[in-house]
Amino acid sequence: MSDLVLVTGASGYLAGHVIDELQGQGYRVRGTVRSLAKAAELTHLTGVDFVQADLDSDAGWAEAVAGCRFVLHTASPFPPAEPEHEDELVRPAVDGALRVLRAAASAGVQRVVLTSSVAAIMRGHGDRLLTEDYWSDVNACNAYEKSKTLAERAAWDFAAAHPELELAVINPGMILGPVQRAATGTSVDAVRILLAREMPGLPDLGFSTVDVRDVAIAHRLAMELPQAVGNRYICAGEQVSLPEMARAIAAEYRVPTRVLPDWLVRLSARFNPAAALAARYLGRAEHVSAAKAQDELGWTMRPVRQTLLDTAASLIRFGVVADPGAPRGKTPRPASQAVA
After folding, report:
1. Enclosing H/E stretch for 174
2. How many CA atoms lie within 13 A of 224 on its CB side?
3. Number of structural domains, the chain?
């Protein structure tokens, strides 16, 4: 019988692809949801044993990990805007990670793979190429970045005190790629906004990006390979600006490509929440190296252009946005060609 793997936050964007990857490799999967009533909405996930467990409570976690050889902890809050109080993100991220790790250790789970972020690596180091040796300075972090940094540090501290439990960590960049249902992750909102033409122009900011399908593969490799134990792995490519994303998508769909000056974005931030969030990232560099994941795990990334077009096609396919039409003189590929 194949090994049983627990995936936390099964309703999440990344978790859905992780589950697909695991099932494709023959693993049995159990997934946690905050409410079993919500499990009925996850029609894109078949053959999954759903259990109710919340990061804010101890209830359900012993049952969730029972009989599992591996745990992939993908659940963590990622809001579309900065919260009023940072503890709205930091507390559930840190406490939730420790809650999962304690349950896993008590149940005799062999290995936990934790989803962290490049946000736990990049902040406070200026414009340089960063590796897994770096940690974000929490004094330079916003609430989300702080939550990922402190949650990962807490996980490594727990692992040091419990050597019987193996730990590996994946640090993805901005996750893009096809959605599996109409509910979308926060990170793909950038593509949704472009397709919906919600902005007359684009702020000149950029992110190190990665395809959700490739991040799912990285989780499986970190779960399977012995050399992954005790290591964190950056999974992200070169920084891609929002205008560059728009130009790639504009090859197939009619989207805005005009770049807004920084001063206008900062002015708009006074009354526009989306502009306020964008303004925080103006001038920030995101240069990270995925060489360790490539060398030690044999991990690879698909081209960014493919990721962006697959993201766009899937958002149209599931009705998240209306088809914006093709650029003049070109017919877009059908949304049904999205890889989901």
Report:
1. strand 174-176
2. 16
3. 1
**CA neighbor of 206 nearest in space, from 260, 141, 284, 262:** 284
Task: Confirm whether 19 is domain-assigned.
Answer: yes
Q: CA 121 from chain center: how many Å?
A: 15
Instruction: Per residue of the chain (340 residues), give pLDDT as tens.
Output: 589 999 999 999 999 999 999 999 999 999 999 999 888 899 999 999 999 999 999 999 999 999 999 999 998 766 656 667 788 889 999 999 999 999 999 999 999 999 999 999 999 898 889 999 999 999 999 888 999 999 999 999 999 999 999 999 999 999 999 999 987 777 898 899 899 988 778 888 889 999 999 999 999 999 999 999 999 999 999 899 999 999 999 999 999 999 989 888 888 888 877 677 778 778 777 899 999 999 999 999 999 999 999 999 999 999 999 999 888 667 655 544 443 3
Domain that holds residue 231: 4-176+210-236
Q: Is residue 246 part of a domain?
A: no
Tokens representing residue 56 in the block: 């804010």
Residue 26 to residues 2, 3, 98, 119: CA-CA distances in angstroms? 7, 8, 28, 32
Give the CATH number, domain containing residue 29: 3.40.50.720
| Active-site hit among 38, 146, 148, 292 | 148
283 dihedral zone (left: phi>0; alpha: psi -120 to 50; beta): left
Closest CA to 28 of 86, 79, 88, 68: 68
**Is 148 a catalytic site residue?**
yes
Q: What is the pTM of this model?
A: 0.93
- Contact (CB, 8 A) for 153 and 111: no
